[in-house]
């Protein structure tokens, strides 16, 4: 093992052990989205086919939405609190005296929270299939590709907040301000596919709006609209670059 990779691996192991000691964070990332899916699925009308939705059910639309919700919870609520807490408690300053680089702790947090998002998403898709008879994605490769881009875009947003926030209170405030609009654009309150006119067009230009629409298309067995893919890709690259640029030890 090279000296370049040793600090990154050691940091990943350490951060993973620390995350396992915080079951509360894992609850919101892994289990809460599926609990919300079950609550919505208990509404009889949500399990009925709707002509207004193109012959699908509301519950069918909500499986991709809760997948995005898992990414949002991890990226905007959990990760910024962890990293800004490290900065506030001078943990990052101690890291700065080691061979570790700033991007390595950021990547470690992305890997750990990404694993939590993956677990939560698999749980949501499985429960949707077994409990509510939601079909598995018709285009699984496209669905997986959009999922990866959506997770990276959300984690990059959280990374940018983590880099800019000087304290846990600041990260909580910024995260909350971003959290609710992000949930709206992901379709948590109203599925993006039913938003009218200009509002729908604007939402489609946001990372989670584009992701929600692309996931719906892949779930239905269609190739996602290239515009949605390009929007999501642009946000992922742009936010990722900003997160790496502005991450700091102190």
TrEMBL record:
Task: Name the residues that span the membrane.
Answer: 25-46, 61-84, 105-128, 140-165, 172-192, 227-247
Record's InterPro entries? ABC-2_transporter, ABC2_TM, ABC2_TM_bact-type
Tell me its family: Belongs to the ABC-2 integral membrane protein family.
Any GO CC annotation of this UniProt entry: plasma membrane
Q: Which UniProt keywords apply?
A: Cell membrane, Membrane, Transmembrane, Transmembrane helix, Transport
Instruction: Please state the protein's primary subcellular location.
Output: membrane
- Domain spans labelled ABC transmembrane type-2: 24-250
Q: What is the name listed in the Swiss-Prot or TrEMBL entry for this protein?
A: Transport permease protein
Give the UniProt subcellular location, in the record's own words: Cell membrane; Membrane
Native organism is Mumia zhuanghuii
The molecular function terms of the Gene Ontology recorded here are: ABC-type transporter activity
How would you describe this protein's topology in the membrane? Multi-pass membrane protein
């Amino acid at each position: 093992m090279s000296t370049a990779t040793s600090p990154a691996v050691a940091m990943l192991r350490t951060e993973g052990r620390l995350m396992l000691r915080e079951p509360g964070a894992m609850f919101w990332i892994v289990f809460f989205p599926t609990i919300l899916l079950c609550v919505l699925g208990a509404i009889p009308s949500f399990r009925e086919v709707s002509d207004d939705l193109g012959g699908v059910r509301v519950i069918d639309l909500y499986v991709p939405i809760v997948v995005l919700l898992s990414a949002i919870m991890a990226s905007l609520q959990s990760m910024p609190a962890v990293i800004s807490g490290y900065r506030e408690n001078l943990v990052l300053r101690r890291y700065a005296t080691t061979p570790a680089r700033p991007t390595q702790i950021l990547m470690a947090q992305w890997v750990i929270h990404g694993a939590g998002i993956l677990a939560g998403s698999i749980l949501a898709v499985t429960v949707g299939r077994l409990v509510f008879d939601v079909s598995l994605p018709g285009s699984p490769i496209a669905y997986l590709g959009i999922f990866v881009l959506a997770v990276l875009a959300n984690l990059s947003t959280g990374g940018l907040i983590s880099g800019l926030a000087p304290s846990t209170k600041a990260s909580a405030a910024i995260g909350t301000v971003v959290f609710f609009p992000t949930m709206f654009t992901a379709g948590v309150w109203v599925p993006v596919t039913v938003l009218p006119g200009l509002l729908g067009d604007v939402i489609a230009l946001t990372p989670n709006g584009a992701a929600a629409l692309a996931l719906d298309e892949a779930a239905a067995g269609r190739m996602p609209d290239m515009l949605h893919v390009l929007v999501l890709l642009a946000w992922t690259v742009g936010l990722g670059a900003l997160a790496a640029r502005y991450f700091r030890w102190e």
